[in-house]
Amino acid sequence: MQAHLDTEEYLRHTCARSGTHYTIVREGIYSESYPLYLGFFDAKAQQEASRREVLVPPTQNQGVAWVSRDELGEGTARILLNVLENLDTPDGGPYTDKTILLSGPRTVSLKAVGAAVSKVLGWEGTGELGVREVTEEEFVKHHAANRGGGKEAEDFVRAWASTFPAIGKGELAIVDLSLEQILGRKPEGFHEVLPGLLQDVTGAKVSLKQYAK
Predict the structure, then answer these.
(1) Which stretches within 40-189 are classed as H helix?
(2) Which residues does residue 67 pair with via DSSP β-bridges, in sequence order?
(3) Which residue did the predictor score with more confidence, 75 or 47?
(4) Segment 155-160 long-range contacts (CB within 8 Å, at least 24 positions apart)
(5) How far apart are CA 17 and CA 137, in angstroms?
(6) Tally of CB atoms within 10 A around 57
(7) Gyration radius from the chain CA atoms
(8) What does DSSP say about strands 23-27 and 53-56: parallel, antiparallel, or unpaired?
(9) Mean pLDDT to the nearest integer, 43-70
(10) Torsion region of 92: left, alpha or beta (phi above 0 gives left; psi -120 to 50 gives alpha)
């Protein structure tokens, strides 16, 4: 995240000095990446577990404005097309020297994500997925061990744990209407995207492999 912020600062300062225009697109948290935030959720392992539970650091029950990766791609492409179409206009178009946040239409907390997963997988009343908050150190110890232990695993989990304070502060709960305005329709919310991600219990495992790098 710091690299993103540093890049934005560099663009603003450099472009201000040179007279070059810029457009910054802040893409929200992918709905497809939810397993990483949900205690590295593995649907197949939880399906077979005697007790379904994931461990996460404290989030103060704050939500995340989850957004579909496909719609982020479409929205970003539309912005780029607009910028190109306005290169020779006097004002450069509506996105000149602007920072645009593309978010989902509503926020969903991690506990609500767990409940949604249970509903989609038919676990309601038969062992719903629990979302238990633990200290950061407990989170790191537990998940590093699940990843085989060692310094590399611990460093990865500890780096990931550093994202949760931002959730607790509400930094990922900002709902912005820009994506809806750009698409000309309301973006899909997390609950609309989730069933397609869990067509079978291996779906979340695929998400983990894709994003946990």
Answers:
(1) 43-48, 69-85, 110-120, 136-146, 150-161, 164-168, 178-183
(2) 30
(3) 75
(4) 156/212, 160/36
(5) 44
(6) 22
(7) 19
(8) unpaired
(9) 95
(10) left
